[in-house]
Each structure stands twice: as structure tokens, then as C-alpha cells.
Design brief:
The complex is a heterodimer of chains A (about 300) and B (about 120).
Chain A lengths: L1 H7 L5 E4 L15 E3 L8 E2 H14 L2 E4 L3 E5 L4 E6 L2 E6 L3 E3 L3 E3 L2 H4 L9 E3 H11 L6 E5 L3 H12 L3 E6 L9 H8 L6 E2 L2 E9 L1 E9 L12 E4 L2 E4 L3 E3 L2 H6 L23 E3 L10 H18 L4
Parallel strand pairs in A: 1-4, 8-19, 10-17, 11-12, 11-17, 12-13
Antiparallel strand pairs in A: 2-3, 5-6, 6-7, 9-18, 14-15, 15-16
Chain B lengths: L1 E4 L8 E7 L2 E5 L4 H12 L2 E2 L2 E8 L2 E9 L3 E2 L3 H8 L3 E2 L8 E3 L9 E3 L7
Parallel strand pairs in B: 5-8
Antiparallel strand pairs in B: 1-2, 2-3, 4-7, 5-6, 6-10, 9-10
Classes of the chains: A alpha/beta (about 300), B alpha+beta (about 120).
Amino acid sequence: MAAACKAAEKVRKVLIIERNDSLGGVLNQCIHTGFGLHCFGENLTGPEFADLQQDQVNNLDIDVFLNTFVIKVLPTREIVAVNSDGVISVSATSIVLAMGCRERTRESIVLPGARVAGVFTAGTVQRYINIENFVPGNKFVILGSGDIGLIMARRLTLEGMEVKGVYEIMPEPNGLRRNIKNCLEDFHIPLCLSTTITKIIGKDRVQAVVVSKVDKNLNPVSGTEKIIECDTVLLAVGLIPENELTSGAGAALNQATNGPLVDDTYQTTIPGIFACGNVLHVHDLADNVVVEAEKAGEQAAEYAGGN
Amino acid sequence: MIHIYCTECPNECYLSITDHAGRLDIAGYKCQNGLKFAQEEVTCPKRILTSTVLYKDGDAVKLLPVRTDKAVPLSRYEELMGIINKICVDYKIVRGAIIVEKIAGLEANLISSTTALKV
């Protein structure tokens, strides 16, 4: 949205294509505060931040296609998408990629043990609790101290579920300090560092996990195993930029960030295709995404012949 | 002396608080929000509480994100969640609209975090 708004100041036709039924992406389920201090000068929740951005989109002449899924981006800057009208094709002078990122799953960290129900990523649980109104479990163990995991530890506790602890393989927490304090310390939720889950136990549903201390090389230390009873495992073990469309278009990726390789105008290796936000590299703060997106939007508009 | 990280903004200032027989000596803050945060943290820690309330949209019951418009004492969280969990909104609402005025007798109002115009 930020890229579109900035571009709309310089060029006549701007289109946002969104696969969801509303704009804002993950902001809509991030009901906690901590957004907007930089962009709007006040401490806002995710939905408020998205709503304010949406107001800016509405005030400008920007077209929006919702419930539209992009299948392919061609290096000729043609976009093939599908929605209730069928397959559509859009031809653009320049494109800003802003598809965001997705969570690493149990498979991406090769978590051993029984293949049972009750293992979720933090974002999935966040969606269940904050949007769908489902209770995904009763007794939780959280693996990884990423920000969404910490925020969900607080949210689950507030909604009456029990969080047995947060286990982090690294010797220091991964999330922001304010989240360690406001989400764990405020609610007396234990944080166990240099500790990881080495086995999931259960039949049909998670019944317990085995946690072990790890050594300097992150290998489990035998003899330190502890069994923790729980019915749900929540994974907060990192994010991956979602770059299938980027690679599909033929743009080169940066091995360090898993995002596209860009120059100092946020242009990928394909002329006229730009990238910003979590699809470029994973950000800690949404406000930083807006700053970056505005620059990318401006550059894309300039490429398209705007002044 | 105790040390805490300020959680008011991403600067995360490292605060030192010394109690000289009731007079607090606070160091490490970069702004007035940090000073206030440190003072409250040793007397009555406060946070903005965010949650959801039920929201009737035609026949469907959805969730509406809400928050307090001021920080509220952490010690009152349980009581506040009890109130919040009983609320059901069945009218159109805009971002910032007050859902409960002066919730539980506190200075803070419970407000909507989003605009929900369907119903």
C-alpha cells in the first residue's frame, strides 16, 4: 500500500493486486500494539496501521483487485492472475513485488518425533485466535523466541490457555527486548535458552515433548532430556521471503537474505521490476517496511516515466 | 538498583532505577516517556491491553480487534479480560470508536482497532 501511494503521486495508473479479501496482509491479525510510532507518531495496533494505510489508498486514484491470485510474473512485466472472472492478464510498465514472507514449518527445521496433530506455526495460531475464533489447544509449548511466538505466548495466556514455556536453541532470545519483557516476564512465562525440542510424543494428538539442552555447536546434550506435557506445539522459528513469483520471472535471488538481488533503487535484476518489504528481506518493524516501500514505489514510478 | 528495558518504543532504553528511601533516581532514558515508564514500572506497571470482542455481521459472528486507549495496570488484566470476553458488538463501527467508556472504572476507554461497516 505504501509503495502504491507513493507511486500514485507520480503516475496516473496504479493497481494493487491482493490475494486476500482485504488489504493489509498479516497486519490484520497482529492485534497487538507496537506499530506506527515512526509513520504515524503514535503507538498503534496492526489493524489500525493497516486501516490508516487503507485510508491513504482510498484517497488516491489507486485501483485494487482483491481475491486475485497472481500465478506468474513475466520478465516482460506482464502479470497473469486468477480471480472469480477467470484468468486475467495485466500489462505494466513497472512492477513492485511486495508479497511478504511465510513462516518456517516443522519440515523446514526437521523436528523429530511422532507425526501428530497439534503442531502449528505461530502465525497460524494467531489467525485462529484473533480472526477465526478457534481454540487450537490448551497446554502449549513454544519453540523459538521469534516475535510472533512471544506475542502469542501473551495472547494465549490472556485467553485462558496455559503456556508451559518458550524454548530457544540459541544462547540469546531472537525477539525484540520489549516483547521478552511485555509478553513473557509480565506473565511469568519461562524462557529456556540453549534448549530445543528433540522429540514430539503422542498418538493422533501431541501428548508431550522432550526438550534437551544444546552445546556450543547446537547439538543436544545427552542426559539433559526433560519431558514436558502439552497438547500443542507452537513454532516461532523464523520467516522466509516468499519469492516463487520473483524466481519465476527470472530475477536473481540474494543467498544471504533469500530475497531478490536489488540495486540501490530497489530494482531487481529484471529492469522495471522492483521489490520491497518482507519479500526483499525480513523486517523487525512494519514502520521500516513502509519507509522502504515508499522508496521502491517512487523508483518504480520514475521508471514508468513519472516525474 | 534495578535495571529494566523501556518498552515504550523501539529504542529500548536501558534504564537504571535506584530507590533512595522512596525518592527514585532514574537514569538511562532518552525521553519523558521513558522516565514515566520507569516510575510506573516500580509502582504500578501499566500496558495497553489488546484483545478481541465478538462482532455480529449478519448471521456470522466474527472477531473485532480492540484495545485500551491508555495503558492500564497489569494487575487489572484478569478483571478486564473478564469484561472484554462478554462483549458482543452488533452495530457498524469505525476505527477508534469507544466500545466501553472508562472500562472497570479506569481512566482508559476500550476502543475499536479497526473499521467494520458491514453488519
